[in-house]
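job 3f2a | input accepted
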Amino acid sequence: MNNIILFGPPGSGKGTQAEKLAEHFGLLHISTGDMFRYELKNETPLGITAKGYMDEGKLVPDEVTIAMLRERVKNAGEVNGIIFDGFPRTEAQAEALDEMLEEADSPVKGLLLLDVADDEIVKRILLRGKTSGRADDLDESIIRNRIAVFNEQTAPVYNYYHEKGKAHKVDGIGSIDDIFGRLQTLVERF
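job 3f2a | predicted structure (190 res):
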C-alpha cells in the first residue's frame, strides 16, 4: 500500500492536493480535522473523550488521536493506501503512526512537504478568509503565529522522515494542476 503524508504549513494547499491525490491513486484521504469533527458530531466514545479535553482548552492527547486514527484505518476497506493530511504534527505522533502502520506491514512510503514561502501563505489564507467564515483567516498576526507554531512544533516531523530517506520537498507555488503534477511524479516513484 502507498501510505503518504502530505505535509506543510497552514495554507500550503494540503487539503486540495490530498483530495486530488486520493482520487487519482485510489487512496483513502484522512484529514485529522475531518476525523475529529466526525467523532465529535457522532458522539463516539473517542469523540466524547476528545471533547472533554477540548472543553477544558487542552490539546487532545496523542493516544486519543492515534486511537481515532487506528479506528479509521481499520475501517478503511479496500484502498490502495492512505494519504494523511494534517497528521502527524509532532515527532511522537510520527513514531506512533509508523508503529501502527508497521504492525499492519504497511509503512509510510514518503512525506511530501509543500514548500511555500510565509508571505505567500499569508496571502492565500487572507484570500481564503474572505469565504471561509473563519475570523482567524482574516487576521495576519494570527496567521503568522500559526506559521510560527508550525515551524516550531510541526516542522521537525520533516527531519524525522528525512533521516529515514522518506522526506521530499515539493514546490508548492503555481497552479493547482502544476503542483499536482509534481506530487504525482513523486507518488508514482513510491
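job 3f2a | The first helix runs from residue 14 to 25.
job 3f2a | closed
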